[in-house]
Write a structure and sequence with these properties.
The N and C termini lie far apart (about 60 Å). By secondary structure, the chain is an all-alpha fold. The chain is elongated, with a radius of gyration of 19 Å. The chain is built from seven helices and no strands.
Length: about 140
Amino acid sequence: MPASIRRPRPDPDVVVDIGAVLGSVFTSARSQGLIQLPVLGMIAISGIFYPITSMPEWLQWVAQASPIYWLGLGMRSALLPDAAVGIEMGRSWRHLETAGLLGTWAVLGMVLAPIVLRRMARRESGSRVAERREKALQRIG
């Protein structure tokens, strides 16, 4: 069986949907910066930099709740040799779980993002958008 059929490809839209929702909820530049803290925390425990099996069991459960873990697992299964599966949980790439959970996150994001973005757009008036644009242009030059 060809590798492209056997191994699922991670969907980067999962993370884009999360970014769209968070970006519409937190509108100020300061709060946008604060969003980075939990995202960096999710990346740190996602198993991308070191095996998730080296973490405490409770933290492994927290990491697996993040789509970043599943994106990393999918990328590792696609790019690493089959012998590298030994460092993964259960000594398996868990292709079905990866595809299912990334699909679930993608569907959740596709459902939630338009709702949140519509709500945000209703709060915005044309004059507020124009005012912010003028302020931004004044700062640039």
